[in-house]
Fold this protein.
Amino acid sequence: MALRSAPFLLLVLVAVALRESCFGASSHSLKYFYFSIADPKQGQLHFVSVGYMDDQILDHYDSHTRKVQPRVSWMEKVGKEDPQYWERETQIARGREETFRRNLENLRSRYNQSEGLHTWQLMYGCELQGNGSKGGLWQYGYEGKTFITFDKETLTWVAPEPQAQITQRTWDGIPGRSQYIKSYLEKECIDWIKKYLSYRKETLLRTDPPVVTVSSKTKVEDGMETHICRIDGFYPREIDASWKRDGEVWLQDTHHGPVAPNADGTYHYWLSVRIDPKERERYRCHVEHDGLQEPLDVAVKVPESNQMGLIIGCVVGGLVLVCVIVGILVFFRRNVAI
């Protein structure tokens, strides 16, 4: 099945980026992900690149817009300091898009493939830890599997399968290539981390309070209810959220998602609990965050189906009451007339 839009690829790319983050939580990292899909039947190539600072999207390029664009406000400072920066990055991305196209054609031939979708990925970046130590990664993948990886300590390429060994011999034989990549990972990339940290300093100092909402639904087969507490738009990332029953943290039948970034640099999170509807009043979604003056405790809601029943019941009850009152008035009026 052919993929028809770059936004879908971006979602895939972001998911991979979040799931396979290779750097520790106590460090700062700069990572770039390139992802291409070729459809031989339609002759199409979909290409997407995304840059990340820690877990925040910096910039984005795809084969439809064909332009590198900032995704956080503080990245605009780069263009102010260097007016040619975004045009230069756009030209680099376009060149890499064409290189990826040729690589996919070569790899399909090397693997003796013709039909179906084929993917080629690149992930590279560096890490600056709190103690000053540095790390780096430069790795290519084909069809979702590791194809070839750069070893910056030995200045060589590591090929896990035979089809990659041709590339390994070629790249090892290019004068200066390995030394350039090592220098980029250990020096230039680290310098960009430091620069970006200074750019977003004001962002890091801000606090955005979370918006907390609770939704619910009833499970028909057993009558149990699932209540979902959604927490959105908060910064910084650290947050303490839990379900409480009678004021105590309740872990039974609870689930939660990851703390994930939004496009504007804030974060979102969710947690659910499964309860007996007779005990709704006992439960609260408890949230603590630096952006809040005091903790929030949000009560669970009656599921919409139940609420509709209550509304209908109230309406019917109200109509009955009106009929009774009208009947009494008519009775007395008739008695007075007699």
About this structure: Residues 157 and 169 are 8 Å apart (CA to CA). The helical segments are 6-19, 76-81, 85-110, 162-172, 177-199, 201-205, 304-337.
